[in-house]
Every structure is written in C-alpha cells, then in structure tokens.
Specification:
- By secondary structure, the chain is an alpha+beta fold.
- The protein has a single domain, classed as Aminohydrolase, N-terminal nucleophile (Ntn) domain (Glutamine Phosphoribosylpyrophosphate, subunit 1, domain 1).
- About 30% of the residues lie in helices and about 25% in strands.
- It has six helices and ten strands, in the order αββββααββββααββα.
- The strands form two sheets. It has a six-stranded antiparallel β-sheet with strand order 7-8-1-2-9-10, with helices on one face. A four-stranded antiparallel β-sheet has the order 3-4-5-6, with helices on one face.
- Helix 2 crosses helix 3, helix 4 runs antiparallel to helix 5 and helix 5 packs antiparallel against helix 6.
- The chain is globular, with a radius of gyration of 18 Å.
Amino acid sequence: MKVKSSVVWLAASLCGCASAPMPPEGGVTGTFSIVAVDPEAGICGAAVASKYPAVGKVVPYVRAGAGAFCTQHWHNPEWGERALDLLAAGKLSEEVLAELLRDDPRRDKRQLAIIDMKGRAANRNPADADPSGIWWGAASGRFYACQGNTLTGREVIAAMAKAYEEAKGSLADRLIAALVAGDRAGGDHRGRLAAGIRVAKKGVEGVWLALDVDKSDDAVEELMKKYAALEHPAKAAPAKAAGEEK
C-alpha cells in the first residue's frame, strides 16, 4: 500500500498536480503531550499519548542540562537529539524551533514543543494540519507547555494545564497527572493506543525514567497503573499517615 501511494504521489508530482509534501515515513503521530522542567531540582521531562503505536519512543526527548522536546503530527524523530543539542549550546527555545523549521518543506505540518532548563517554553502549531486533526492547539505556563492535535476539543489541553498546575508531588507525578487529565477529557479522538513518559535529572547519565505502554485499549490508564506500581526515585515520597513515625 505504501509503494502504491508513493507511486501515485510521484506521478502527480511529475505532472505538476501535487502541491503537498509526502507524509513522514513512519506515519503521522496525531497526539497530545506535555514538556516541563523543575529548574531548582535540575529535572526535565515529557509525557505523551496517542493512537500511534509506541508513541513514547518517537515523540518525547529529554536531556539533563538541556531540557525537553516533543515532535508530533508530522513528526521528525531526527530532530529530537538535534533540538537538545541546540538547547545545550545555549540557544533559546524559540531559536531552536526557528532553526529546525527554516528550510523544512513540511513546516506547516509540524507541531513542536520545547522547554529549556530555565523553564523558557515555546510551541509551534501546524498551519496545515490534516483533516483528521479536528482540533489542535497548545498552552504554556510556569515551567511547562502542553499541546495536541487530533483532539476531541480544547478541553483536552485545558485539562492538562490545570492538572499540571494543581497536582502535588514530583515533576514525574505531575506529568502523569496531566496526561491522565487530558485523556479523561477526551484525548485523541481516534482512540487510546499508546503512551509514554521520559524524565532526565542532573547528575544522572541518559534518561532517568522511561516508562511506556506501546499498545493497549486504554494506554494512559495502563501507564498510570504501571507508574503507580513503580518504585523509582523520580516519584514523590509517599505521604506519611497521621501519627506515623517521621
């Protein structure tokens, strides 16, 4: 099927009928996500959910000392490490997006989010989202940005932002809370197949926390359960019951 569609596109191009670029090789990651940092703790992270399989392995990128980045809709995984390299080199978030998009023929199909370790965030929404997009948009606040496409409506992003701002606990706890809130507000209108979270911490090499649900009928809820059962220092210490020894 991929070969046939490619041949049709090539024929249209040769006759001057094609005006749009070909979709990315891996397909379109219609999704919703959040990037965030805790500047004082030196922690950054990202969480994502989608109908796209194994979405946690192609959308979110994090690096201690640099920040977090998500590439979605017509995603480009090759930009993940490049974006973090640019942040690490001292580029502002807006400068990184400008550099990535400057010569990109698919720029109007991209949805991007980026945040540095100081909490300076930037979003790029697609100007030419696919018809299946229905609703896309973004919101940012204190040390976070959330964004999505192919959503059931604006309430998804609003719920994510509210949950992140009001949730207690660690950065990872708050990322999970935001993802669950977005999913329960409607999420991706096509379904709930995959979800993932990535967290990096100053002084820890590579990704500190990586947790995925690659294929499920209810991926975000399953991710939440896996996270709840997980023993990991990225989680906040459980609150002690009244009268319990300190």
